[in-house]
Amino acid sequence: MRKIVFILMLVFTGGIVGAQDLIVTNTNDSINCKITKETKDHIYFSYLNNGELRKTLIGKTDVKQFTKSNPGASGNEMKTSGIQPGYSKFRLAMHGGWSTRLAKIANDDFEQYMKDLKKGYNLGFDASYFISETIGFGLKFSTFGSDNQLDNVTIDHDMDGVLSTGTVSDDIAITFVGPSYSVRVVSNSGNAFVSSLAIGYLGYLDHSYVINYPFDLKGGTLGIAWDLGYDIKLSEHLSIGAQCSLIRGTLTSITQESEYSSQKIDLDEDEYESLSSLNFSVGLRINL
């Protein structure tokens, strides 16, 4: 029995010596070995260390190139292969879902109307280019939408003691756009946690209507957006994902525009308009 094991070891180690493969790492280290298996993400190989046979593996992201012998070919042909990045460099995420604004609401006759107006939907996309498996830079776009209407409202429209009855409505859009920084952690299954931080422009538009008087409220400010999501791999280039996003920003001034006039209004500190929102969404991710 010992002779059989010894002969098998001689045959195997002799194969390593007689048909040496070569792995060159990204740090230009050379590994003389026998490559036994190659997968999408790893290279498995055997090597001799002080006469002892050892088996291990190396991630392709750490390999510059490798040379593999082909003993069956004439002249013991050698084949050299370059390593392509073992990760997707480009990620496009398209998503939509439910949102709620985080602004406080005044305790008055319109409290329920404003509570309903806080809730809405979100649509957006994130385009990122990854310079490594974990670090990426890109562009984020997201928009929040909400509308509400209240009929048979009676108010003193011109503050002159004359009451008017009619409809009040709002159609609000809050849009964020800006450059982003992303961090990605990919599992062996191809699923990934993705977190990003973006700083950019946060715009506000409200198509408002108050008892026969239509007007727009507009404004813009600096916004900050933070996302945390999880992508589930469906195929080599397609994933489905879910994410939670927090967008923050505050208006200190607003412009009121109607058919006949336009007026910029500087808000007092206790009148600042919070544009902050919490967003939950799902969507498709394209990885290239």
Architecture overview:
This protein is mainly β and about 290 residues long. It has two domains: about 1-80, SH3 type barrels; about 90-285, Porin. It has two helices and 18 strands. The chain has helices spanning about 1-20, 110-120; strands spanning about 20-25, 30-40, 40-50, 50-60, 65-70, 75-80, 90-100, 120-130, 135-155, 165-185, 190-210, 215-235, 240-250, 250, 255, 260-265, 275, 275-285. The strands form three sheets. It has an eight-stranded antiparallel β-barrel with strand order 7-8-9-10-11-12-13-18. A six-stranded antiparallel β-sheet has the order 4-3-2-1-5-6, covered by helices on one side. Strands 14-17 form a two-stranded antiparallel sheet. The chain is rod-shaped and about 100 Å long. It starts with a helix and ends with a strand.
